Amino acid sequence: MPKGYQGLMEGGSNIVEAKWENVSSILQIGGTIIGSARCNAFRSREGRLKAAYNLVRLGITNLCVIGGDGSLTGANIFRKEWNGLLEELAQNGQIEKDEVHKHSYLNVVGMVGSIDNDFCGTDMTIGTDSALHRIIEVVDAIMTTAQSHQRTFVLEVMGRHCGYLALVSALACGADWVFLPESPPEDGWEESMCLKLSENRAHKKRLNIIIVAEGAIDSQNQPISSEKIKELVVNQLGFDTRVTILGHVQRGGTPSAFDRILASRMGVEAVIALLEGDPETPACVVSLRGNQAVRLPLVECVQMTQAVQKAMDERNFHEAVRLRGRSFEGNLKTYKRLAIKQHDDKITKSNCNVAIINVGAPAAGMNAAVRSAVRVGIADGHKMFAIYDGFDGFAKGQIKEFSWEDVGGWTGQGGSILGTKRTLPGKHLEKIAEQIRSHSINALLIVGGFEAYLGLLELAAAREKHEAFCIPMVMVPATVSNNVPGSDFSIGADTALNTITDTCDRIKQSASGTKRRVFIIETMGGYCGYLANMSGLAAGADAAYIFEEPFDIRDLQSNVGHLREKMKTTIQRGLILRNESCSVNYTTDFICQLYSEEGKGVFDCRKNVLGHMQQGGAPSPFDRNFGTKISARAMEWITEKLKGSQGTGKKFVDDDSICVLGISKRDLLFQPVEQLKKEADFEHRIPKKQWWLKLRPLMKILAKYKTSYDVSDSGKLEPLHPNQGTSDGEPAAI
Length: 734
Known about the structure:
It holds the Pfam family PFK. The protein has 734 residues and is of the alpha/beta class. The chain contains 23 helices and 22 strands.
């Protein structure tokens, strides 16, 4: 329905049947192709009466509304009034009386589309991640000029009533200060901020970044503008200061891979919810909790969202932050811990030394994870040591103590500043044990991929022989392949997905105006098909060949035949993704030649091997944020384990003292490496069960294949306030 509720009321050509071709090739387009409009007339019963008439006339009794809390509130009122509106239409003679009975109830399902992420009940709204991409692109560009000129930049981002964008972008770029509507600075903030900025300059930091939400206020509910902050910095410190207001740049541009996948998953859940609806089903909203799509009561979510504003108006800011949800609360807590260093005399020393090491191939976001761990460790009173060049460097003693300032500016840098290698510790156990003893290392944090997991297993097995390894060890998954057992996500995978998706968009665009063409694109991932499958979903691929789902020549022939049929319509381009190790014999060259031969006269074929560009580049906002938060939580776990153990000679020998930290569905879990052995396929270096395989049929359905979608996970309406995680974990917030 073009023009939102306006189109619903006007009817006629504004309500049209959507066919397959209507929604082809729109994944990469920002905004909404059907248009949206604010509509005051729909607030009146008269307006809703017109809308009801236009729907009944076409026999429509299911409505999926994508919008913010205003749109969803309107949809719920419309649903409640539906029967009364139909009876009124029948009395007026506009519809037949039997139509009142025939269309007696309206099903409503909401999906939240809002860049502000201001809707309670969901960890992420559709559009938020893309807006963060726009902000971080600008911040990264500003950082280079700010460093060159030694400047302070005040950046104003959107968020009139919600500070999510400001908070997460501050977390993702390591901003010096952030101003939010929900959490105003304490009285006297002017002096505190200026002190922090001057301290940073004294430590030779060449730039200062201050991020301001457009609705930022002080504790008396008075607005804090970016201009006011600039004047303060110039007058108090004399720093060269510039203001940048991002404005509607944040709403535009191409959707990120995360948003495309999120919207696709939410769309499916919304349709299933509508199909399962009955007269007793209350209006629901499809939300994201951790890594799971859930249905929540729409009315309660709207009420809670409105309660946030009420709490802010009443200056009850602690309540406002709590109501925003666990994602916002967690981000705020992490930002405060990482941005503001307490004076040394205020930190209780633990007398413990904690080491951090990167293992495996580089992944974007590793540096954010190291920065976070170092700063949380220092705040907890530990001495923090960084190990260079993986287990090789560990054995050679390439170990250095890190200070708070040593990791400044690391968040946005790609690759691994510490250096990382695939070498396993097995060959160097004696030397590594000696280094642990000589540096008095009491705990180890490993950031890495499958090699890091194998390395932990080797260290666990060597505990009997080497007492030095009887210390708490925890692994944070970081690999573009996303193949670590025990976690749905790995640091670096989102950046790689965005690289592949952007490349697919460009490749498809390169064929515009030419004859019909099919592209075969090879992705990384070893034997894990995550990148091929998810980028296929994000880029609108026709097929994705992966190791986890064996295929043969008949499947290839079927795919070619399917594409030949599609090319007879208005569709001009095809996209096929292939995981690098999906088959020994059906190589990228073979598939390209097969498609070229079988498609003769209908389409031609081109191939692209993306290679190591998938490991490079600046980390995406998701990877910066995820790396920062999960690493901070890993350090907190280490602190809990070490509490009271120093000087007691305590040896950590239990399985639960050597763990992998990961997200599983909606829980954040510390799982012992021994326990995860039964979940891993060591020959192919992948987990035996992978959550994203359930999305395979979705990609096929969207590519116009006839297949069934597994709805076993789709559920009934859940309470807005669930039990806090499972018995083994804590709630995970994306």
